[in-house]
Amino acid sequence: xxxxxxxxxxxxxxxFDFTGCEGCELQLANKEESLAAxxxxxxxxxxxxxxxxxxDDYDVAIIDxxxxxxxxxxxxxxxxxxxxxxxxxxxxxxxxxxxxMKNAYNxxxxxxxxxxxxxxxxGLTRSIKEVVDVDLEIPGCPVxxxxxxxxxxxxVLGVAFTFPVSPVCFDCKHRFITCxxxxxxxxxxxxxxxxxxAPCPAGGLGCWGCRGPAxxxxxxxxxxxxxxxxxxxxxxxxxLGFFGGFEGLR
Length: 250
Ligand code: SF4
Ligand code: SF4
Ligand code: SF4
Hints:
2 domains; 10 helices; 35% helix; globular; Rossmann fold; alpha/beta; 5 strands; binds iron/sulfur cluster; 5-stranded parallel beta sheet
């Protein structure tokens, strides 16, 4: 890849997984049509899903997953100390993601219920920024490969990247989808960050906010409208809490 006729330096990139389903890493690895160009613009020095290379001389560390065990705290601190830029990739890394739901339960009871007399190490779910400094968060469950590729291009060229500031409704209206509220369904589209092309409203599911809040979203007004439309506070809270992106906004 050249920019203004100049071959930019290829940053050394490492990808690490913590607590999560690794779906975001798969997004990076499985888009064959652009994989060669993507890998050609960076030097992968550590990425368990795509290479057996294990080097620690990375410039950029991309983190998939959240923190939910003590050994992960030590590991992320070690990675942070080596990386010039640390990127939290996906809703788990950015907000805790679906894992955050376990924070509502007694973990000792849950451990006994699931693992019996062989309890597993576990703790409260934390996002990456709750443990170490994060330079950039890429939201989404999973992340959009196109968006990650654009961000990596910006990093390579040293150009700041800005996320869309509009809500998902913006994408939804571009697709001429009838608002799901008109069908009696709940949707976070008016307060969630766009850029995903609204696949969930298009599929009739409503938005669950996997990309976190849109800039300056009016959460109070959203809740008031949803209540007016007959949704209970419990339904609204469950939806807002699902990916953890709205944590701390209320
Ligand atoms: S954000 Fe979603 S796809 Fe990515 S690791 Fe977490 S659960 Fe998996
Ligand atoms: S369905 Fe959701 S995203 Fe689409 S217009 Fe309605 S609230 Fe917005
Ligand atoms: S519509 Fe909402 S839940 Fe679905 S991908 Fe977009 S932000 Fe995520």
